[in-house]
């Protein structure tokens, strides 16, 4: 009876070790695939940034709209459609991104992420709120340069009490009327994420299928440091080596247990 119980425990242990070995190998392979993905992203960034700056106008071909490629545009700022993207931290500081459409000469629009600003303390009195008048884009034809992004970088939420958090635009936006002056961080609409297609539907503007992350130096109080994807593939390779090491340990223990069990069975005969 005791021998049968011991054999059963050995079988359970071998099954568990086999599952662990397979699981560790799978995790190691997953880390290697993540490393490959990051290398591909790093190559795409290098390709984009090594290209000559493209002019975003009526002559621009869609095939030239590569992510991370330098780009230039000229148009009129549409301040009344400015938005704030919430929960965009910079170096650990809570803040917001300011986004404003730029109307191009051909009538289309380009969504420009103009920069980062620190989130004001909500406990401050109303007259001490951070004024946005310094961030109001100047009137008339303006030139802007930066880097192309295929979309507004998303803020992924685990949950949200707001309906349709992936869009973020309330049903009553935009509100008609003239632009409010001066605008403040409390009066501009804040959203978690922004979809250019919905923005086009709401405003009636025909947007280019890309976003421009502004990089040129403008004395408007905004910080222009944009987050990029992680391209540290070496970290993933290090994790893969760890998982393969765990797999080797579990596999060796499994082989040792199989050898020990078979030897006992042979001796018993």
TrEMBL record:
Keywords attached to this Swiss-Prot or TrEMBL record, sorted alphabetically, are: Cell membrane, Membrane, Transmembrane, Transmembrane helix
Cell compartments where the protein resides: Cell membrane; Membrane
Matching entries from InterPro entries are given as:
Surf1/Shy1, Surf1/Surf4
- Gene Ontology CC, one term: plasma membrane
Q: Which domain of life is it from?
A: Bacteria
| Coarse class of the protein's main subcellular location | membrane
Q: Does the keyword Chloroplast apply?
A: no
The keyword Membrane is annotated on this UniProt entry: yes
The residues that cross the membrane are: 239-259
Kindly give the membrane topology term recorded for this protein: Multi-pass membrane protein
* Family as reported in the entry's similarity comment: Belongs to the SURF1 family.
Q: What is the protein named?
A: SURF1-like protein
Give the source species.
Sheuella amnicola
